C-alpha cells in the first residue's frame, strides 16, 4: 500500500479533504492547541458524554459541518507514544471499516509531535486492519480499497513522517507475506509451496535462492531433519535465500525459520482439539519470507541469509518412533523420546548448516513449544540467547517494531534433563521449563557463532473467532537487520 504525508498549512484540518479524517487525541486530558474545527466537535462530544477521554474510546461523526472531510473519527490514545498512536489508530480504523471510505486521512491533536515511529506505526495499523484472508475463501469481503492513506503533520515533522511511512509500508508488506503464507491450510502450504514462495520473492527482488531436496540433504548428513520428514508423503525442502545489501566480505546475519507445514505430533500424536492450528507450525519460516520481502523493499546495507527446513510431521509406517536414535549433521546423536518435539530436530541441522556462512549472528524463529505459551502468553515472544549484547539489540528491535519479546534464562542447569543413555542427548527433558530446555537443546548446535532463538508459539497466530496469523515477528527481525546496516 502506498502512503503519503501532507503538511498542514494555515487552514489546518478543516480544509483537509478526505472521505474520512481520523483524529488521534494524544492523552486522556483535554488537549490544548487543538485545530479549531476539530476542537469544537471534540469539546462538545466530551461535554455531552458522547466521548470519554479514556484509552480505546472512539467516536464517529457523520458529515461534520465544520470540516471538509466527509466523516470524522475521534480516537483516544493513552499518551503521545507511537505504540498508543497505533492502538488508537486501529480503533479509529475499525469505526470506518465497511463504510464507503476510499481516502483516509489521519492526524494527531494535542501538542505531541509526530515521529518516524508514529508514521511507521500508522502504516502498519492500516495494513493490518484491512488485510483479509481470501485464498481459500474467495467469498470473504474483499479488503477495503484505501487509496493512499494520508498522514497530516506539521512542517517540522514532514521528513520524519515520510521516512516512517515508507518503512512502515515495507514492514507491512513483509507482515502480509508472512500472514498470507501462514494462513494457508496444510494441504496448500506444503514444503514445495514454501520453496515456490521463496523463488517468487527471489525473482521479484533479486535474491539468490537454492532449494535442496531429499538427496542433497542426505548428502549433507542432515539425519535429524530427514528423520522428521520420513513419515510423510510430502517431499521435504531445505530453502536457502540470500540477500546481499553490503560488500560480499561482510559477514551475514542468518535467519533460520521452522517450516513444519503440519505438526500432527507424529507417533507421539497430538490430541484432536485445535490440532488444525498446527498448520501454523511454519510461522517461523513465514516470518523469514516476510522479512525478506521487507528487505527487498528497503534494501538496507546488510547481508542476510534465510534458511528454512520444511517438512510435515506425520505418523505412518515409515515414521520415526520414540526411542529411535538419529545422527545430526553436527555428528551428535539424538534419542527421539517424543516425536512431537520435532521442531528442534529440523532446526538443529539448519543451525549446523548455518556455520558455512561464517555468520555475524544466527537467529532462529520457531513455534517451538506450548510451554512458551504458558510462560509468556500471547503478548511477548520468548527470546533465548547466552549473548547479552545480542539480547539487548533484539529487545531494542522489538521495542522499535512494537513487536515485543521477553528474555528468558538459559543457565547450564536447564540442560540436565536432556541426557540420554543411548545417544549424545535426548530430544526432550521433563515438563518443567519446557521452552527453556528446548532452547538448551538448540544451543548444543550453536557453539561456532553468536546465536539467539525466538519462540513465537504464543505470538505467531491468534485462536478463536479471530483465528489467523499475525505476521510476527517480521517487524522485530526487520528492525534488527536495519540496526545492523552500515
Ligand atoms: N509446534 C509445537 C509447539 C506448539 C504447541 C506451538 C502448541 C503452539 C501451540 C511443537 O512441535 C511441539 O509439539 N512441542 C511440544 C514439545 C514437547 C513434546 C516437549 C509441546 O510443546 O508440547
Ligand atoms: Mn510438535
Ligand atoms: Zn511443531
Your description of this structure?
With 486 residues, the chain is an alpha/beta fold. The protein folds into 2 domains: 4-175, 3-Layer(aba) Sandwich (Leucine Aminopeptidase, subunit E, domain 1), CATH 3.40.220; 185-483, Aminopeptidase (3-Layer(aba) Sandwich), CATH 3.40.630.10. It has helices at residues 36-47, 82-96, 116-130, 158-183, 191-205, 214-220, 223-229, 283-298, 343-354, 370-376, 388-400, 434-443, 474-484, and strands spanning 4-7, 20-26, 58-62, 71-77, 104-109, 150-153, 208-212, 237-244, 253-257, 259-263, 303-313, 324-327, 333-336, 361-366, 381-384, 405-407, 425-426, 451-455, 461-462, 468-469. Strands 7, 8, 9, 10, 11, 14, 15, 16 and 18 form a 9-stranded mixed sheet that branches. Strands 1-6-5-2-4-3 form a 6-stranded mixed sheet, with helices on both faces. Strands 12-13-17 form a 3-stranded mixed sheet, covered by helices on one side. A hairpin with a 5-residue loop joins strand 19 and strand 20. The longest helix has 26 residues, at 158-183. 53% of the residues are buried. The model has no long low-confidence stretch (mean pLDDT 97). The structure holds ligand BES, manganese (II) ion and zinc ion. Zinc ion (ZN) is lined by residues 260, 263, 281, 342-343. Ligand BES binds next to helix 10.
Keywords:
486 residues, alpha/beta, Leucine Aminopeptidase, subunit E, domain 1, Aminopeptidase, 2 domains, nine-stranded mixed sheet, six-stranded mixed sheet, 13 helices, 34% helix, binds ligand BES, binds manganese (II) ion, binds zinc ion
Amino acid at each position: 500500500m502506498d502512503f503519503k504525508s501532507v503538511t498542514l498549512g494555515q487552514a489546518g484540518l478543516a480544509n483537509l479533504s478526505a472521505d474520512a479524517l481520523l483524529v488521534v487525541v494524544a492523552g486522556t486530558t483535554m488537549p490544548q492547541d487543538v485545530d479549531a474545527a476539530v476542537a469544537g466537535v471534540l469539546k462538545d462530544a466530551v461535554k455531552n458524554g458522547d466521548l470519554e477521554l479514556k484509552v480505546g474510546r472512539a467516536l464517529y461523526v457523520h458529515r461534520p459541518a465544520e470540516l471538509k472531510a466527509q466523516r470524522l473519527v475521534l480516537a483516544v490514545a493513552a499518551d503521545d507514544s507511537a505504540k498508543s498512536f497505533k492502538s488508537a489508530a486501529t480503533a479509529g480504523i475499525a469505526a470506518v471499516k465497511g463504510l464507503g471510505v476510499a481516502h483516509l486521512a489521519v492526524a494527531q491533536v494535542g501538542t505531541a509531535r509526530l515521529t518516524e515511529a508514529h508514521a511507521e506505526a500508522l502504516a502498519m495499523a492500516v495494513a493490518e486492519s484491512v488485510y483479509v484472508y481470501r485464498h481459500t475463501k474467495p467469498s470473504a469481503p474483499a479488503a477495503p480499497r484505501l487509496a493512499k492513506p494520508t498522514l497530516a503533520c506539521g512542517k517540522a515533522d514532514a521528513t520524519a513522517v515520510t521516512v516512517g511511512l515508507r518503512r512502515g509500508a515495507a514492514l507491512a508488506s513483509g507482515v502480509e507475506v508472512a500472514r498470507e503464507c501462514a494462513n494457508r491450510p496444510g494441504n496448500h502450504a506444503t514444503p514445495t509451496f514454501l520453496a515456490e514462495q521463496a523463488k517468487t520473492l527471489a525473482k521479484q527482488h533479486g535474491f539468490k535462492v537454492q532449494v535442496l531436496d531429499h538427496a542433497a540433504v542426505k548428502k549433507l548428513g542432515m539425519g535429524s531433519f530427514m528423520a522428521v520428514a520420513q513419515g510423510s508423503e510430502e517431499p521435504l525442502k531445505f530453502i536457502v535465500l540470500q540477500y546481499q545489501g553490503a560488500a560480499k566480505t561482510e559477514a551475514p546475519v542468518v535467519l533460520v525459520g521452522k517450516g513444519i507445514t503440519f505438526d500432527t505430533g507424529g507417533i507421539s500424536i497430538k490430541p484432536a482439539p485445535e490440532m488444525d492450528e498446527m498448520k501454523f507450525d511454519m510461522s517461523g519460516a513465514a516470518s523469514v519470507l516476510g522479512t525478506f520481502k521487507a528487505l527487498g523493499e528497503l534494501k538496507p546495507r546488510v547481508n542476510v541469509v534465510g534458511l528454512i527446513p520444511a517438512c510435515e510431521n506425520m505418523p505412518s509406517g515409515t515414521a520415526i518412533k520414540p526411542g529411535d536414535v538419529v545422527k545430526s549433521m553436527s555428528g551428535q546423536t539424538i534419542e527421539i523420546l517424543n516425536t512431537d518435539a520435532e521442531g528442534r530436530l529440523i532446526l538443529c541441522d539448519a543451525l549446523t548448516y548455518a556455520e558455512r556462512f561464517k555468520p555475524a549472528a544466527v537467529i532462529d524463529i520457531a513455534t517451538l513449544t506450548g510451554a512458551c505459551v504458558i510462560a509468556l502468553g500471547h503478548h511477548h515472544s520468548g527470546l533465548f540467547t547466552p549473548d547479552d549484547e545480542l539480547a539487548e539489540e533484539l529487545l531494542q528491535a522489538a521495542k522499535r517494531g512494537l513487536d515485543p519479546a521477553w528474555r528468558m534464562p538459559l543457565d547450564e542447569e536447564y540442560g540436565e534433563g536432556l541426557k540420554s543413555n543411548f545417544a549424545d542427548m535426548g530430544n526432550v527433558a521433563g515438563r518443567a521449563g519446557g521452552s527453556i530446555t528446548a532452547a538448551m537443546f538448540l544451543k548444543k548446535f550453536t557453539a561456532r557463532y553468536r546465536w539467539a532463538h525466538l519462540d513465537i508459539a504464543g505470538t505467531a497466530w491468534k485462536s478463536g473467532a479471530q483465528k489467523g496469523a499475525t505476521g510476527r515477528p517480521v517487524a522485530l527481525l526487520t528492525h534488527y537487520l536495519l540496526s545492523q546496516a552500515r
